Amino acid sequence: MALRFVSKSLARGHRRFAPTAKSMSTVVGYGDFPGGQKVPYVNKLTVVDPKEKDVIPAYRVLDQQGKIVEGGSLPEGLNEELVVDLYKNMVRLNQMDNVFYDAQRQGRISFYMTAFGEEGTLFGSAAGIKPRDMVFAQYREAGVLMWRGFTLDQFADQLFSNEDDLGKGRQMPVHYGSRELNYQTVSSPLATQLPQAAGAAYGFKLAKEDRISICYFGEGAASEGDFHAALNFAATRDCPVLFFARNNGYAISTPVKDQFRGDGIASRGAGYGIPVIRVDGNDIFAVYEVTKKARELIMTEGRPVLIETMSYRQGHHSTSDDSTRYREVSEIKFWKDTNCPLTRLKLFMLEKGWWSEERDVSLKDTERTNVLQSLAKAEAKGIPHISTMFNDVYKEKPRHIQEQEQEMLEHLAKYPDHYSSTGH
Amino acid sequence: MFAKTTKLQRLATAGRARRAFSAAPLVTERMNMFTALNDAMRVAMETDPTAAIFGEDVAFGGVFRCTVDLKEKFGEDRVFNSPLCEQGIAGFAIGYASVGRTAIAEIQFADYIFPAFDQIVNEAAKFRYRSGNQWDCGKLTFRAPYGAVGHGAHYHSQSPEAYFAHTPGLKVVIPRNPAQAKGLLLASIRDPNPVVFFEPKALYRASVGEVPVGDFEVPLGQADIVRAGTDVTLVGWGAQMRVLEETADMAEEAGVSCEVIDLQTILPWDVDTIEQSVRKTGRLIVSHEAPKTGGFAAEIASTIQERCFLSLEAPIQRICGYDTPFPLAHEKFYLPDALKNFEAIKKVVNY
Ligand SMILES: Cc1ncc(C[n+]2csc(CCOP(=O)(O)OP(=O)(O)O)c2C)c(N)n1
C-alpha cells in the first residue's frame, strides 16, 4: 500500500525547475533505432539535466520519535515476537561491536570493523529475505549473518583466526563466511561480489529454484567498475538478484560529494533498466518491508531490483581509522542522538508496552557477558595447524606445494624455537 | 613422427579416456582447432546440464567460430552473449560457479583479459583458500585466444600466461593442436579448479589433424614429449610448438637430436618430465612468444638449474619475444622463430 504511494508520487514528480523550452517542444515523429526503444523526435533542442529531477524519496514507517508516520502502519509479517527478536539482535551486535572494538584497541585481535548506525539496515533486510537466499556481503554486514544464526563463538573464532575458524585462520578479522548459512565468504577487494551475485542468481534461475542472491555494498564501492558490470549483466540476463546499497555518507574519509554527483545510488538503477527503492535505513520496519517487497518483485517479474538505504556510519571506518580527522564530532553526535535505529525501535516498543527500561539494561548486560565469554574461549584456542596453510589452494595438493610444505616443516624442525604460533 | 593411430592412441590412453578404446583402432575425425574446441564444448554441454557458455559475441558462433551452432543446440539460456565488459564476464562466471554450476566463459582476446585480472587473481584463484574450503569456483574455465597472428599488433597478439602463472590457485593450460585442444579443454572444464585456457588463434584454422570423436580428456599438469631425442631438450607450448618442431628438423639435418616437449599446462607445470629429459640431454632451450623478462621460461630455467645443476652441459637458453610491446610491421623480426632457436642449439651444443 504505502509502497505503491511512493512510486506514484515519483511518477507524478513535480519539477522544481520546469524548463519552458522543453514544455513547448512537440513530438514530431518516432525513430526506430536498433540502439533504443522507439525514440520520439521533438522540435526543440532538449537537454535532460538530472538536476531538474526530483530527489528520489526514501520510504519510512517509523519516525525519529518511534511513532508510526502518518498514513503508515506496522508492516505485514511483523508482530511483537519478531520485533522484540530484531531488537535483541541489534543489541547483541552492538555489544559484540563494543567488546571487539576494545579488544582490538588492546591488541588482542589485529583488526575490527563496527556496524554502529547500520543495525536497522542489516536486521531489517536479513529478516525480509529467506534463509536459502544467497548473501554476498561487503564486510559491514555481520548482522545479517547473526540473524541467520552465526553464533558469538563462531564470530570470535574468526576474529582470533583460531583452529575453529571456519576460514582456517587465513583471512583478516570480519571476513566471515558460512556455507551452512548461505553466506559467501567476504573478501577485501571492493565490489567484486556484485557481478558474482548476479552470476549466482542466474544459476538459481536456470535451476528454477525459489531463491535469490542479495548483494550488499557501500556507496563507495558502488563507484567501482564491478558495480556497473553487475547491474548491466543482471539486467540483460534478468537475474533474480537484489542489489542492496548501504549509503552511510562516507567511504573511509571520502564524503559522497567526492564520490558521485547524481542522486545517490538509487538514481543509477533507471539507466540499467532496474527498478529501485530508496529507504530510510534507520527505520528497521521500512527496511524490512522494502526488502520483502523487492524479493517479491524479483520473483514475480524475474528481474533484479536495487535498494538504497540511507543511514549514517556512526563508528570509525575501522580500527585503523580515526574519523574525527575528517568529520566533526558534533555531526556524529547529531546522528547518534537524533537518528539511531536502535533508539527509534526501542521508543516504539516502550510505547507499545512490548519492552521496558529494566529489560533493556539486563539485555545489554547479558549480551555483553555472552560476548566476553566467547572472546575468552576463542582467545584460549590455538591457531590452526601450520600445515593447513598449504591446503585448499587447489582442491588437490599439487606436487610443488607438497614440496614447499615439506621444506617448511624441515626448516621448523631445525629451528623449533624461532617461530611462535601465538599473536598476530 | 609416430604413425597416426599410435600417436593418437597414446594421447587418448594418457588422457584417462572416458571410453574404453581397447584394441580396436581409435575412431577419429579430421578437424581444425576451432572445430575441435567446438566439439569439446558440445561434449561438455551434453554431459553436464549445468554448463553454460557466455562471453562477447558467442551466441552467433563467436568471432573465431568456436561456439558455432551451440546456441541452436543448447538454447539461449545456456549459450548467450554477455555485455561488453570483461570484469563482468569474469565476476559473473565466478558467481555462477560458486553455486556449483559449470561456467565456460570466453574472453574475446587474451589481450583483453586484463580488465578481468582482479576477478581472476584476487577472487577466482583465492575463492577456495580464503573460505577454508567452504566455497569454491572450481567449475570455471576462462577461454581466450592468445598469441601472434601475423598482423595483430599490440592488442591482438599478446601471450599473458606468465601473469597468471604467478597466481596460486589458478591452472593455466595451452594446447598445440586440435586433438590436444579438445582433450585439454574437456579436462579443464571438468577440473575442480578455475582454469585459464589460452588458445593459439594462429592455429584455429591452420592446425588440422585427426581428433578422437566423443568424450575424452588429456590430463592437466602433464607435459607431452612430442619427439624423443638425446642432445638438446626444447620446451615450449601452444603455437610455439610448430616453431620448435621446425627447429628440431633443422637440427636433425645438422646431426643434432632434439627432444621436443610440449608443456601443455603452465601452472602447475610438469617439472618431472622436463627434469628427466634434461638429465638425459644436458641442454635446455625454452622458447615462448611472450617477452623474455618475467616470462615463464625464467621459472623453468631456474627450477631446472636447481634440479639438474650437475647434468647441465651449457647455460639454459631462453628464446623469447623481446622486451617490447608486440609490434605490427616488425612482427617477423620480433618472434622467436626457428632460426633464432636453431642458433641457440648451435650455441649450447658448441658450448
Ligand atoms: C578495490 C579496493 N579498493 C580500495 C579498498 C580499500 N577500502 C576498504 S573499505 C573502503 C571504503 C569503502 O566504503 P563504502 O563502500 O562506502 O563502505 P563503508 O565502509 O562505508 O561501509 C576502501 C577504500 C579496498 N578494500 N578494495
TrEMBL record, chain A:
Principal place of residence: mitochondrion
Alphabetical keyword list: Metal-binding, Mitochondrion, Oxidoreductase, Potassium, Thiamine pyrophosphate, Transit peptide
Gene Ontology cellular component terms for the protein in this record: mitochondrial matrix
EC top class named in words: oxidoreductase
Enzyme Commission number: 1.2.4.4
GO molecular-function terms, A-Z: branched-chain 2-oxo acid dehydrogenase activity; metal ion binding
Domain Dehydrogenase E1 component, residue spans: 88-386
Similarity comment: Belongs to the BCKDHA family.
UniProt protein name: 2-oxoisovalerate dehydrogenase subunit alpha
Organism: Aphanomyces stellatus
Gene field: Aste57867_20294
TrEMBL record, chain B:
Subcellular location(s) per record: Mitochondrion matrix
GO biological process: branched-chain amino acid catabolic process; response to nutrient
InterPro entries: THDP-binding (IPR029061), Transketo_C/PFOR_II (IPR009014), Transketolase-like_Pyr-bd (IPR005475), Transketolase_C (IPR033248)
Gene Ontology annotations for the cellular component aspect, listed alphabetically: mitochondrial matrix
Gene3D superfamilies according to UniProt: 3.40.50.920, 3.40.50.970
Pfam family, one: Transket_pyr
The entry's keywords: Mitochondrion, Oxidoreductase, Transit peptide
GO molecular function term, any single one: branched-chain 2-oxo acid dehydrogenase activity
EC number: 1.2.4.4
SMART domains: Transket_pyr
Catalytic reaction annotation: N(6)-[(R)-lipoyl]-L-lysyl-[protein] + 3-methyl-2-oxobutanoate + H(+) = N(6)-[(R)-S(8)-2-methylpropanoyldihydrolipoyl]-L-lysyl-[protein] + CO2
Cofactor: thiamine diphosphate
Enzyme class: oxidoreductase
Record's keyword annotation contains Transit peptide: yes
Residue ranges occupied by any Transketolase-like pyrimidine-binding domain in the UniProt entry: 31-206
Protein name: 3-methyl-2-oxobutanoate dehydrogenase (2-methylpropanoyl-transferring)
